[in-house]
Each structure stands twice: as C-alpha cells, then as structure tokens.
Amino acid sequence: MALLTKAPRGTQDMLPADSGRWQYLEETARAVAKACGFREIRFPTFEHTELFARGVGDTTDVVQKEMYTFEDKSGRSITLRPEGTAGTVRAVIEHGLLGEALPLKVYYLPSCFRYEKPQAGRLREFHQFGCEMFGSKGPASDAEVIGLAAQLFEELGIGNLSLEINSIGCPECRAAYHKALREYFEARRDQLCETCLGRLEKNPMRILDCKNPECAQIAAGAPVVLDYLCQECAGHFEGLKACLAAMGLAYTVNPRIVRGLDYYTRTVFEFVSQNIGAQGTVCGGGRYDGLVKMLGGPDTPALGFAIGLERLLLVMDQCGAAFPEERGCDLYIGSMGEAAALQAFQLAEALRREGVYAEFDSMGRSVKAQMKYADKIGARYSMILGENELAEGTAQLKNMKTGAQTAIRLDDSAVGALSDTVFFEGYEITEEEH
Ligand code: ATP
Ligand code: MG
User: How far apart are CA 388 and CA 335, in angstroms?
Assistant: First the structure.
C-alpha cells in the first residue's frame, strides 16, 4: 500500500495551498523575461539520450550519474530532461530559428529530472526557470543575461544573493590551462576518486567541480584558469566587469566556478545564497559558444542560465520575502430551503460569468455550517437567501469584515449590483491592505 500512497523519493506534490506561491514565481519570471525580450519555448520532457550525453557533456556528474535513462518499447535510448539548455538548442536548430532575427532570446519553465540524493534543495524532480540567448558574442550580452536574473531576484525581494563570476576561457587559451591542470593532478592522482581519474584524461577541468571532499581539497590548490586566459578572453572578462559596474551590480570573482566542457566558453556565473545551507547555488549560467555547432547547428555564440525554483522558494522563505495575498472567495451566497438554494446557485453562476468568485452551498448544510465554511474560504462578503428574502425580493449583502450591510434587490439588477460591490470594491480593499 505504501507504494500507492507515497510519492517516489525526491518528488514533491504541489498542493493547492501552495500553488499561489508557485504561480507568483512563474508569473514574475515570465514578466521579467518578457520585459527583457525573451519569449517562451517548450520542449519535450524526454529526448534521445545522445542529446544530453553530448549537449551536457559525458564527463559531467549529470550524465555520468544522474540521468533517468530507459529504453522505450522499440529499444531507443530515451532520457528525461535533466536540464533545459540541450533541448532548447536542439529545438532552435531543428526549426531553423537561428536563421531568423538575432539575437534569439528564449525562456523556459520546465520540470527536470536527476537521480540524486534527495535533501533540502535537491530533488529528483525539480523545476527550473531558464533563459538562453543566441547570436551575440559581446560581453554586454553576458551582463544582460546576468542582469535579467538579478532583476528577478530583486522583484522577488531577495536582491541580496551574491553574484560570483569567472571566465573559463576559450579552446585556444584552455590548451595551456589543461596542460597545467593535468600536471598538477597527475602528481596527485593517487588521491583522486575513480570518476576524476577518468576526467583527468578527458577533461581535467571537471575535477574542479567534483563533490567528493578529497578531490575538492586537492582542487583547492590547483592552478586557476584566470591566469591562463588569452588576450581576447581576458578582454571579454574585463568587458563584462565594466558592464556589471555600469549596471551597479556587485559581484565577486570566484576562480573556482567551472562549467568545464570544451564548448562552454568564457563567462560562467552563479548566484549564491548564504541562507539555505549546502545547496546554496540558486542560479548557474554561462556562455557556451561552441555548443550549437557541436550539436549540428550553425556556428552561433550563445549563453544562458537556469534557476532552481525549489531553491528559490527556500531562499524566499528563509529571507521572509513577501508573497502576494491570495484572493479568497468574493461572495458566499448561503441559502435555506430548496427554492432559495436554486436561486443562490443561479446567482452564483451568473456572477462567475462576470469573473466574480462566488460560492454557494453544495453540501446541504445548515445555515450556521454554511457560514462557517464561508469563513474558511475567506469570503469577504456573504448573503443569505431564505423564504423571507425571496418573498420580499431583497436580501442583505454583508461585508464580513466590517459587518456593514447593504440591501440588494433580487431582480435583474442583482448581478450588476453585487459584482460592483464585491468585485471592484473588493480589489480596492485587498490593494489597500498590502
Ligand atoms: P549543484 O552544484 O547544486 O548540483 P548544478 O551545477 O548541478 O548544481 P545546474 O545544472 O547548473 O546545477 O542547474 C541550475 C540550477 O538548478 C541549480 O543552480 C539549482 O538551483 C537547480 N538544481 C540543480 N539540480 C537540482 C536538484 N537536484 N534539485 C533541485 N534543484 C536543482
Ligand atoms: Mg548537480
């Protein structure tokens, strides 16, 4: 039975009581993206495994350890998306979007899947807000994308996240760096984990990102990539810093940040929170000038970031960030007796067509129990229809907060009169309360 009544490890239900918070996050993200010229893209929940193996990189933890990969019934290897960049790049190549007006700017809000050890801020199904920008290679675009993330954090009341930036250079300047790294780690290979020994051959920069504490300790003393940047990459990094300064965005240079695959280039960055423990990275991003070409598209510079929404919520809660109050029931129409119940139902239906959240009794409860329910759903106004009200053709509309009553004629004017009061006034009241 437990299998029937318990969600799989590392997954979370999003319950109605919390959905307003999620919608607020998503709406805010959409609004910020839109103001920055990004439009939404949606891609499949699963792709050919090969796309992620190549697009995320087969020396990454994601590909080596975390993918949900399975064979479908015809023997194809399929993987649930662990992130959004690969699917985005595949889609923009497939549909020729890079031949249209550049820069191309897109955002997405998908769920992602990674087989990881579940803990606070680390799930097996989680959600991302990601932005990707194609076609521009100057550092102003790096700053633009970083600025978008920063703007979102500000909107959400968590503008105090620290921005850390680094440059991991380009394939040219990285050759010398790889050589230095290999020499450094070669001399300490007996202390490296199994996975990192493989990385030593294929992509020594990945060792810098290993979560194994022993590897991390050795990595702390390794040569840093900033000392190996070619002139152009160094210039790009200086350009980025100048743009960030011009935007008034504070940052620190952290030479330990790597997203070390050959087609990741130059800028990498993270937004980190000190408040939510070990899983403090809320946003990770960077430039991947080589990826589009590597996946079979036209040689196109590109960059982007992804924000983990669960971590974002953790940070917001930790910082006591405000969420907008949810608009409860506008009007509860209680009733006594069958005829009144029918009239309450009709009135509620008509009001709902005007966009008013009107509720009526569908449980056959006593008036007292109906009013209790009205309270529970936060009704701001109530009205009770009984024999007297029907006979007289009027009912009292009650403001639940102030107790003030207004007579409402139960004729053709009722819907208009009610919606004027409970809907439009209601908006003003909630606005003022904020
Ligand atoms: P970490 O170092 O924490 O494992 P990562 O480098 O694997 O992060 P990215 O691939 O850059 O993460 O993904 C971008 C963002 O997605 C992260 O900064 C984080 O907020 C979120 N994220 C990544 N993995 C998970 C997960 N398993 N559960 C919840 N959020 C996640
Ligand atoms: Mg990870």
Answer: 11
Q: How confident is the model at residue 326 (pLDDT cuts 50, 70, 90)?
A: confident
With b for 16 or more beta-carbon neighbours within 10 A and e for fewer, the 74-112 pattern comes to eeeeebbbbbbbbbbbbbbbeeebbeeeebbbbbbbbeb
**Maximum alpha-carbon separation in the chain:** 95
Q: What are phi and psi of 164, to 5 degrees?
A: -120, 130
| pLDDT at residue 424, rounded to an integer | 66
389 CB within 6 A, ligand 1: no
Place of tokens 């959905």: 19
pTM of the model: 0.92
Give the residue, by CA position, lying nearest to ligand 1 atom 19.
308
Whether the per-residue pLDDT at 1 is higher than 80: the answer is no
Per-residue pLDDT averaged across 130-146, rounded? 98
283 Cβ below 6 A of ligand 1? yes
Total Cβ atoms within 10 A of residue 45:
13
Q: What is the mean pLDDT of residues 27-53?
A: 98
Take atom 8 of ligand 1 and give the residue whose Cα is closest. Answer: 281
